[in-house]
Design goal:
The protein is an alpha+beta fold. Helix content is 19%, strand content 29%. The protein has two domains: 1-85, Pseudouridine synthase (2-Layer Sandwich), CATH 3.30.2350.10; 89-246, Pseudouridine synthase (2-Layer Sandwich), CATH 3.30.2350.10. β11 and β12 form a beta hairpin.
Length: 246
């Protein structure tokens, strides 16, 4: 079973990126999305001859959702310009701990590399500008679903801004190491898993999904691509809804 293709035409392709798959090859990676998609579409992903797959933006390895790739150099330049100048409209869904005091807002908090390294970023007044608008979608007993509208594209922006809001992602191994998984036993009173088997988490990866991208294609048309939530994210939300909203 291959990658879920959301839209495919001669100039660009959009896929619903799964969790656990890096966008591009890396030292610690056995494969990557661009390699797997190239095989699936029978297109090269290296070289200078078009058509070939070309990166225009990235998602964190554990983030799911809309990922856009170009198939020729002019399209890559056209789309990359929009990303670099914050002209792309992005919508993310973030499942977080807690509940914000307001129903919406704007977080304006600069981001810089963390001096401790390990791929971490941090909020810092001398960092690069980072802005995220947000809106509360749903509340549960101990969690909330927040729709995020990043107005800039800094590394780990939503993860850091949600934590700054006082509502860190429900699962984020890098910034909240103890959040290894979301278990029904931790959400539902009096629930006890069977002694015969180890309880499986409802979701055990970053609770962040890039749901929608809206951009202008090379022909000047406004395009909006929607990526459905993946099965584990849907399962977690369904259980939270069954247990009860706040």
């Amino acid at each position: 079973m291959g990658l879920e293709i959301l839209h495919d035409n001669p100039h660009w392709v959009a896929v619903n990126k799964p969790a656990g798959l890096a966008t591009i090859p890396g030292r610690a990676e056995s494969t990557s999305l661009i390699e797997e998609l190239a095989q699936q579409l029978n297109l090269p992903w290296t070289g200078s001859v078009d058509p070939r797959l070309r990166i225009v933006h990235r998602l964190d390895k554990e983030t799911t959702g809309v990922l856009l790739l170009a198939k020729d150099l002019p399209t890559q330049r056209h789309l990359s310009h929009q990303f670099q100048n914050n002209l792309i409209k992005k919508e993310y869904l973030a499942l977080v701990h807690g509940r914000p005091a307001e129903s919406d807002g704007l977080i304006d908090a600069p981001i810089a590399p963390d001096s401790r390294g390990s791929g971490r970023m941090t909020l810092h007044r001398h960092g690069k500008p980072a802005r995220t608008a947000w809106k509360l979608e749903e509340t549960f007993r101990s969690h909330s679903l927040i729709r995020c509208f990043p107005q800039t594209g800094k590394t780990h922006q939503i993860r850091l801004h949600m934590r700054h809001l006082g509502c860190p992602l429900a699962i984020d191994p890098l910034y909240t190491p103890k959040s290894a998984g979301l278990f029904l036993s931790s959400l539902k009173r009096h629930y006890r898993p069977s002694n015969k088997e180890t309880e499986r988490p409802l979701i055990d990866r970053l609770t962040l999904h890039a749901e929608r991208l809206t951009f202008t294609d090379p022909q000047g048309l406004e395009i909006s691509i929607l990526a459905p939530l993946h099965k584990d994210f849907r399962a977690a939300l369904n259980q939270l809804r069954r247990i009860g909203r706040a």
